[in-house]
Design goal:
The chain is mainly beta. The protein contains 1 helix and 9 strands.
Length: 150
Amino acid sequence: HIANGMYGLILVEPAGGLPRVDREYYVMQGEFYTTGKTLAPGLQPLDTAKLTSERPEYVVFNGKMGALLNDGVLRAKVGETVRLFVGNGGPNLISSFHMIGEIFDTVYTEGAIGGGAPAKNVQTTLIPAGGAAIVELTVQVPGRFLLVDH
């Protein structure tokens, strides 16, 4: 799918939309299987041996190392409710998506917003390659909270 440009998220909201939150962000995880070592300069062709053995040189959010740092920081104030639309473009690895220092108040696994009750008070949620989740949290204390794939 990725080779044909199918990378990213599409949200189909339920009739009437989703409940309002203070902030919404998009986070997409992906893997790069390069012939060069991490941080090697220049164009890095695909390493098919790494791809087939599921050994990525990079696992990143939003397409590059450090994408959610500096100018890419996802900001929120204490008391605000944040919704993250999180995808895993893969192509191989499962994401064990977690925010260090916070608990997700609500998790819609597989992005399932139309049926069944969402999970509540979740520390880490699994997102398969090619899958997605929607996570919501209310910021309780000031701080810097890291998004990670455990």
